[in-house]
Specification:
Chains A, B: It is found in: Cytoplasm. Chains A, B: Belongs to the class-II aminoacyl-tRNA synthetase family. Type 2 subfamily. The structure is a homodimer of 648-residue chains. Chain A has 648 residues and is α+β, with helices and mostly antiparallel strands. Chain A contains 23 helices and 17 strands. The first copy, chain A, has 3 domains: 110 residues, no CATH class; 126 residues, Nucleic acid-binding proteins (OB fold (Dihydrolipoamide Acetyltransferase, E2P)), CATH 2.40.50; 348 residues, BirA Bifunctional Protein, domain 2. At the A-B interface, helix 1, helix 6, strand 3, strand 7 and helix 11 of A face helix 1, helix 6, strand 3, strand 7 and helix 11 of B.
């Protein structure tokens, strides 16, 4: 390794150690990083010493080099930890030992390696060699036709194809044979390297896992199916083989460990488990498992179907600002930003802006955008050994909101029905067009599949379905639900009970609850005037602002025109009819003790003609997590954020 | 007005004055707000005094009320300003005078008003009255069929329809006739209220502009076309009329002023102009103009076609974190966030994360998300009197990035072609399906339409088109382009010249420039090895990291595999092939003096097998602005942000 590279490696490892400590990461993670740092320092020492050996003492170069020698790497605690060290420790220790052999030895080894590692080729040179290391720098226009691993099927038998893929595994068998498992996302195929002479087989055997290769070969039909590969009915007989990117020989985590299912782990306690923090620290590797390939392609599909349905219904997509001048909607749990000498805040939701967009005559709007919550609360829901490190924090501090808001004519159920149909469109889309991703995503954690089947949706997503749930709940009697004060929200237990009833009645894990108490909803929620506890009209409405106003105190006991949508007993959407009368908005805010003066633009937007409207916000990661039955919200966030995690 | 409401109005107006001052808003804007505040205080005084009059002196209530009296409102400078005051001033002064008449007088007036303003109705009561003020609180399920203003066409003649719309204007003609212009987004229709007896006409005449009404009436065919309305071939004979939301009588800006075209304003200097700051301060009203209705529906359509095309090409949508642990990509111009006792930063682009997503085998990804730039630079491009207030700041601090990144096989032009086809899909989509919005958006500012016609795109979007541009540029001779040092970027003048050539040759204002100097691109940009100033190979590549490395210094003079896309001579997209070799990345960063240790996760992501890849980022607001030829980036941002503006 060059001295520059070794120096950079030391700097990078040092930074990682500092970051992990700052994040309060698990002890083992910090220790592993410290070992990596020590290994990097050893490599640097070796590189510098080798350079010093070929440099006359006393020259300026010699002094410059000598100054680069790092402080002695002290592998303290390494031996003590050996037995219970995770794989990272072993890798680091091995790297450290290898580095300590010294650069001279390494130089010798490199000369020996070169024969096996093959020549370095430019794109111009590749046709002259049947194997080698190919660096692609766009020197030649694209001319080849490429075949995906997924497309390797028996009908291609006899054809010669180019495939670019990762080497999942490389198994040499004797001098003339090497099997490569090629992988592209969720698909794998077996490539057979067979050559009685030459170095093609030797070259194939040196390829570290996860390296990227270009393979030219003939598709053949094996006598027996290749059980270990998704493309089990074919093999690829390799004629030419180029390494496009050679992976480091030691991976921070093994993909086969990360890919195991709960069942496999339960059946064999000796198997290596990869905990959530290690996964997130090396997220790019972790994301390569088939389950994660499925999860994040499904996440994309959720957004696609959400938007596709709403666009078909005449919605306009908006983009509201994320930096706002005032800590709206309460002010707690909001992140502060330094904004040219004053304070700005990160938007906790696009709520006020999507309503303002409606008042600006956009009529039906949606937004897909990040939302920010500075919440620091601890959870008690998940306490298992594997998730305790990250599940200390119940909420992510940043997630993706799928928000919608629309005007309606007579009743906010027009909007609730739209939300309901949106969910159905999303579920139908996933079930109909993403079977492969669903199977991959559900492999590691199986959960009941009693939800979102198109047939169930066809018959059960209308007003009648909601009525039937109410009947069944009534039939269980009042004791089945916890007693609530008029101003209390539902508890988790009640939510789960309702989930069970829905599953019984409808064979699916999706339901809506309507009419929450005004006390547990935001100030801009429209009270339900059909509730007798609602006292209207209070006063003769002012001519400019007709309509009844709520009575302070008693109004809070009343229901409001608000709703939540649940999957598997957990909320994924919250929404309501909003107050569109500016006077009533002031009254409601006063009742809740909310100061509206910082958001006068919002209040003003209702003063010049306001359409009745309602809407809701959907948590993207929650929908993906609950649809798939994943155990942790971080599994459905590509690079999750919580109070302790800001990296990667 | 109730005392509570008056107090809230004072608080809100006071906050607005403080905000405007903090933002360094124009003097006139601040003065107008001060007058509003004074008017609000006068109203409060009047309300309190009225209450005091009906309250015995010496009682606790009396003292509480008395304490509410605000400090005397001193309308200093009001008279002096009268002549050149904007409409806001006149409104505020009028409101102040009205308020000062006192609450007793107002109460009398209200009783008189009630006859004209009509009864207040609940949804249950509306069938019993042919007009009135209807407050919609979702007490009754939706039962009516509603017709859009756009749908009012001659084929409906003779039918009775329900329409909900805004009252754009109300013109009473005698006792028995009133014309209402109804508006829904970009569409208007004339409603005729004719009644020889009863108060229907009087009620219609009291409706302030922008109020929302429900109209039930019969579609008829007028003898002459209604030239003032988009639905000129029909009229609506009003049978029943309900005010769903009554607007304040004085608007902060008049829609007909805000809607005028540049030509109209140039032809008649006496017309009221609405400057950009007033528009943005009252954005919800400003957005109701037909031009803005068109602009923001087109903005939505740009996103729709961008995503639709990329999804059709196998892309996956990702969501990368916006709060990041380190100030990546340079560190300047980055916003700092307080993050649980330490610092986080707002992402300036999803660049590093979209590359990491590719390294995680997602292969082709895109993201539509806000990006944040703490840029404080002043512009000199636009100095006109109408835009000087907001155009002091060249850049918005928050905008929407349409980012894409994909692996390629042999040459980064595979990716550039994908970007090119993406733009064509967007342009085609807009031109083919959004003619109405285009016409509305282009009304206020006409610009040449020599771009993005499907026929031009069909023949001119391939490699040949790019070659022809180069020929034409060569034909003009070297003197036509400014002399550049090897390490300099193109200047604005050169960009415009190229724009002219493209327009001459291809009849459109869209072009791509390829191969920028490495010196003006970020450290992760792949150098162009075909440039003779590029010195490769420098050293024997290490077996783990094959490939040539750039020579420090001389490498910066070389071209890089990077490109920009332009519309009307301004850049809308920047992109490049990225360095996918970790050793080369370290070398390039070192050459640029970039410290990679804080972003080790990014560097590490290339160590375990990396596919060659390229991508680009598109500024949504810039595409909309330049496609439509708008004069100001704030015109294509719904709620723009710059160093002085954080509201609304």
């Amino acid at each position: 390794m060059s001295i520059e590279a070794a120096e950079a490696a030391v700097a990078s490892s040092g930074q990682r150690v500092r970051d992990l400590k700052a994040e309060g990461a698990a002890k083992e993670a910090v220790e592993a990083a410290v070992l990596e740092l020590q290994a990097a320092k050893a490599t640097l020492t070796a590189s510098v010493e080798a350079a010093l050996a070929s440099c006359a003492e006393g020259t300026p170069e010699y002094d410059v080099l000598k100054a680069k020698l790092p402080p002695a790497a002290k592998p303290k605690g390494k031996e003590k930890k050996k037995d219970d060290a995770p794989q990272n420790d072993r890798a680091a220790a091995k790297a450290a030992r290898a580095a300590q052999r010294g650069a001279k030895a390494e130089a010798k080894a490199a000369t020996k390696d070169e024969a096996v590692l093959g020549p370095n080729l430019s794109q111009a040179e590749m046709d002259s060699a049947e194997f080698g290391n190919l660096f692609i720098q766009s020197t030649h226009a694209a001319t080849r036709a490429w075949t995906g691993v997924k497309e390797l099927v028996p009908s291609l038998a006899g054809q010669q194809v180019w495939v670019r893929a990762r080497v999942a595994t490389s198994r040499k068998q004797g001098k003339a044979l090497c099997f490569l498992q090629l992988r592209q996302s969720m698909h794998t195929a077996q490539a057979v390297v067979f050559a009685k002479e030459g170095e093609l087989v030797g070259f194939a055997a040196t390829l570290p896992r996860e390296s990227v290769v270009d393979v030219f070969g003939e598709v053949t039909l094996p006598a027996e199916a290749v059980a270990s590969c998704s493309q089990s009915a074919v093999e690829l007989q390799v004629r030419r083989l180029y390494c496009v990117s050679r992976a480091m020989p030691e991976l921070p985590l093994q993909l086969e460990d990360a890919a195991r299912s709960d069942e496999q782990l339960a059946a064999d306690p000796s198997l290596t488990r990869v905990n959530q923090d290690v996964r997130l620290n090396h997220r790019v590797i972790d994301l390569r498992t088939a389950a994660n390939q499925g999860i994040f392609r499904l996440q994309s599909a959720v957004c696609e179907h959400f938007r596709g349905f709403l666009l078909s219904q005449g919605f306009t997509e908006i983009h509201s600002p994320k930096m706002i001048g005032t800590a709206s909607e309460g002010g707690a749990d909001v992140f502060r930003v330094e904004y040219f000498g004053r304070d700005a805040y990160l938007a906790q939701s696009p709520q006020l802006y999507k309503q303002m967009a409606l008042m600006a005559d956009l009529d039906r709007v949606f937004e897909v955008a990040p939302v920010f919550r500075s919440e620091n609360s601890l959870t008690h829901r998940h306490g298992t050994i594997f998730f305790h490190l990250c599940e200390c924090f119940r909420h992510m501090t940043e997630f993706v909101g799928l928000d919608m808001e629309m005007t309606f004519f007579e009743h906010y159920h027009e909007v609730l029905d739209m939300l309901d149909r949106t969910f159905c469109a999303v579920f139908d889309g996933l079930n109909q067009s993403h079977q492969e991703e669903l199977a991959a995503a559900r492999f590691t954690r199986r959960c009941e599949q009693r939800l979102f089947t198109p047939s169930a949706l066809d018959s059960e997503t209308d007003e009648r379905a909601r009525a039937r749930i109410r009947e069944r709940l009534d039939a269980r009697g009042p004791e089945s639900l916890a007693e609530h004060a008029d101003t209390e929200d539902m508890g988790t237990e009640d939510e789960k009970l309702l989930g069970e009833i829905v599953a019984e009645l409808h064979g699916q894990d999706y339901y809506i609850i309507d009419k929450f108490p005004a006390a547990v909803r935001p100030f801009y929620t429209m009270p339900d005037p059909t509730d007798p506890r609602w006292c209207a009209p209070l006063s003769r409405p002012r001519s400019r602002a007709p309509g009844p106003r709520p009575s302070p105190r008693r109004g809070l006991a009343a229901r409001s025109n608000s709703y939540d949508i649940f999957i598997r007993g957990e909320e994924v959407t919250s929404g309501a009819q909003r107050v569109h009368d500016p006077q009533m908005l002031l009254d409601c805010a006063k009742e809740k003790g909310v100061d509206l003066s910082p958001i006068y633009s919002y209040v003003d937007s209702f003063k010049y003609g306001a359409m009745p409207h309602a809407g809701g916000g959907i948590g993207l990661e929650r929908v993906v997590m609950l649809f798939l039955g994943l155990p942790n919200i971080r599994k459905s966030s590509m690079f999750p954020r919580d109070p302790k995690r800001l990296n990667p």
